Each structure stands twice: as C-alpha cells, then as structure tokens.
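pinned: reference chain
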Amino acid sequence: MAPHRDSRCIQYVVCSNYNSPLLTVQEIWAGFGAAGRKKPSGCENYHSMLNTSFRARLLLLTILLGALPVLASSLFITLRTEQALVWEKQQKLFGITRVLDQHLQSSYDGLLAQSSRSDWGREEKIAFLNRALARYTDEIANAYPGVGVGYYSKQLDAIVTYGPSSVYGHTVGIPISQDHQGRLVMESGEDRVQEGALVRGRIMNAMHPIVREGQIIGYIWANELTEDIQSQVGEMKKSIYIASVIGLLVGLFGVALIVDNLTAGINMIKKGVFHLQDDLDYRLPKLPAELGEISVAVNRLGDELLAKRQLEAQVQRAERLAAVGEMAAGLAHEVRNPLMSIRGFAQLLQEDNINRSQKEYLEIIVRETERMNALIEQLLYYARPVVNRIDNVDINAVVQNVKKLVESQTKAKNIQVVTRLKKELPPVACDAEQLKQVLLNIVINAIQSIETDGRIRIASVYLPEQQRVELRIEDNGQGIPSAHHERIFDPFFTTKEQGTGLGLSVAFRLMETWGGTIQVESEPGEGSSFVLSFPAGKVEEDKA
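pinned: its structure tokens
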C-alpha cells in the first residue's frame, strides 16, 4: 500500500578605580575587608575564600561564555547539515519520479490503446498497465536499494504498480485513503513531500503529478527510509560534541592559566596595600596591563602619603625647634647677667688675701661660670634666626678643611681618616662656614665614639637622576641604638655625659634651610653613618 503520514533547553569582586591620589591606606585596606597589623586566621580564611570565589566565578563565566557559543554553533551546524541531507534526499527522490514520468511517455490511455481490447473493465486495465510499467519500476527499485517507486491512476483510483513488486506487488489495484497527500498532489498539480512513520520505519515520500495535455491523470511517487539521515546526523553530533568538549577543556586550561596570573597580580596588589599599612616605603613591583596601572597608582599613593608624613614630621619638628629656641633665648637672657655677676665677684675675691683652699674654690666657681656661659652662647646661637650667606660651595674643599682641623685629635687616638671625593662635583648652595661647623660637629662626634685605632670614611657622590649631591660620613665607633635614631636630631638630646644635645639639632636645622636632608644609619657596636643630601645647583648672581 502507498505510504501515508502519521503525526509526531563572586560574593566578592574588587573593581578598583583610582580616581584620586587622596585615598588613604585605611580606605584601601577597608576595600579589601581587613584591618590591623596582623590579620586573624578567620580573616585569612575569608580572603582565601574570596580569592577562590573570584577565580571560580571567572572560570564559570568563561565556561558559560565559551560553552554557549559552542553549543549554539553545534546545534546550528547539526540543523543545517540535517536540512542539507533532507534536501539532498528530496532531490534524489524527485529525480526518480521525473525519470518515471518520462518513461510513461504519453498517458495511461495511450498504453491501453496498444491492446486490441476496448471492453476491458477496471481490473483488467489495472492488470495491463501493471504489466507495462512494473518491469521499469522494478529496475529503478533495484538500481536504488531501499527506494520504493510507483504509479497511481486518478481515473482508475488505484495503484498501478509499486516496485519492487516482490515487496509491494500486493498493493496493486488498491486506492489510497481519502486523506492521503497524493490526492492533494492530483488536485493542486504541485510536487509534495510527506514524512512519517510506517511499519518499516520513518520514510520520506516524494510525490510528482502526472500532467498530460493540461490534465492531471495521476501521480508518481518515490519513497525511502530516513534512517541514513538520522545516522549521519547522529555521527556528526557525536563528532561535534567530542570536538566541542576537547575545545572547551583546552580553552578552560588556557583560561585557568590566565586567571591564575590575574589572581596572582591581584593578590600581589592586595599584599602591597597591606604592607603600606605598616611601611610606606614599600612599593609594588611592575605588573602587566591594567594591573600595572593599578600598581602604579598604589605606588603613587604610597609616595604621596610618605611625602605627606615627612612634611608633617618636618612641620612638627620646626614647630618644636621654634618653641625650644624661644625658651632657650629667654632662659639665656635671664641667666646670663647674674652668671656674669657671680663670675665678677669671684674674680674680685681672688685678689683678696685668702687661703689656698678658698682660692681653689673660687677658681672652680670661675671655671664653671665660664662653662655655663659657653653653654648659654650655644643656646643663644640656636635660638637666634639662621642667617645664611648663600654661595656656591665646593663640598670637597670644605671636607678637606675639616680634615685638617681635626688632624690633631685623630692622631691622638690613632684614627685614620679616609676620603673618597667625587671629582668635578657640582657646587651646592649653602653657607660655607656653617657647613664647616656641621661637618666638624659630625666628625668630632665620630672621633669621640671611637676609643682608639679607628677609621672615619668620608665620601662624596653626585646623583644625576635626582640632581643631588650626597656626602656620607662613616665611622666604626660604638654606634647608636636604634631607639635613639628618631630623637638624635632633637634639641638637648644626647648620649654623651658632657654633651649639650644641640650640635646635631643645629645641623638638622641648617640642612633644612638649604633644602637638604640629614639621616643617620647606625647599629650598636658597628659604627654610625651620617648621610647629608644637598640639591645640586648654582646660586644665580645678582645682575643689578
């Protein structure tokens, strides 16, 4: 029987926009969700979880962004391939129907006219047409294994032949059902394709109308199972899915490497921010791409915060020194006059007839008043405004001068003074006499810290990138405890029994006045190193 049709889917992301250099370390610290110098273990676990979450979310996003296009592409390719196979089978079947149409030549009536009988009934006509056409339909069916072909007569309303006859010969003479698509073909005169499931499987039936002299006399069909299409599509789907999975795995591995590098950079930035909380001198290393911009911004922030802290320290020191100066000046003026009176009366008493013991006591009074007067002179010098006679000063020449001035003291203790002075050193703008006093004070302190058989090294160097001249004075004396480093330049602070604690304070004050800095590096038992840094340049001469 002719075929008929049956009917039948990161709690934590940090986005850091460096918009302002005025952000504080605390704000950045808060942005990472931490506080304090030492993070508790719970905080460490929390940050570890966040990093894991960020990494996992990024990988998940990558999988989704990669899988969806691949899946969509696979479905599209599969659909297009299936459509192409269906179209190819349709063209094949319709090609067979057209060959059968050409074989029929004239019409059913033309074939019947070849017989000598004109009084045949319906059954006899069907039998005659079957004998005339079955041989050719069987040849076509044998040439295309699995294909069923046949002729249908509209006038006789019956299947004329259905090849291969050995399989479908029993259907000859049977009419198609009233809802069969073949009747629509005979009514419309248009080709039609029907797909459906039958007992032998799902088939595709291509039907072609037989038109003679403007009249539709029947139709020709060619049908075939579609299992080959489903098989090819299934194999292709399998290949596509395997290739897609391999591609996703390879892509996921590559993305995992990228994500690891990215999270490593983020962790490095986060650790850098944590370090800045305790050490403003810490700087992040260079990082690639956008992370590099963030690291530069964080480093810039550290520079600005460090400069701010240094400026605040300088202002506080200046305010403190100014207050000390005013106090020292007041005390010096109040004490100096009565002290001179005591000294004068003691000298007068020395001229009287006194015994030896009284004379010794008076000598002590005079000596101590002179010492106190010298101290007062130092206080007055510290208190009075700094008057600089700024000039272009050759630091190397000042160093050589100071070396000669302390020669007697160094020889007495067998101390070797070694100088390594950079030739053609740019001049610095300062007061030569005051600079000499600064260097004398530092060198004498070094001599006093060495018991005997020591070494003092003085070196000068030019830093062209920073446009600064540095002078380093090193000794191998007793050294200074680290706890005293921050106070070493404070007025009246001293580690010596007979010191006033004003020498280094005055030196610090003068260096600030010249736009320079003075720093100390020292460890007990390993000696001390004082580094003086000056801005390089010449004083402009007055052209007036």
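why pinned: The domain at 310-383 is CATH 1.10.287.130 (Helix Hairpins). Confidence is low (pLDDT under 50) at residues 1-44.
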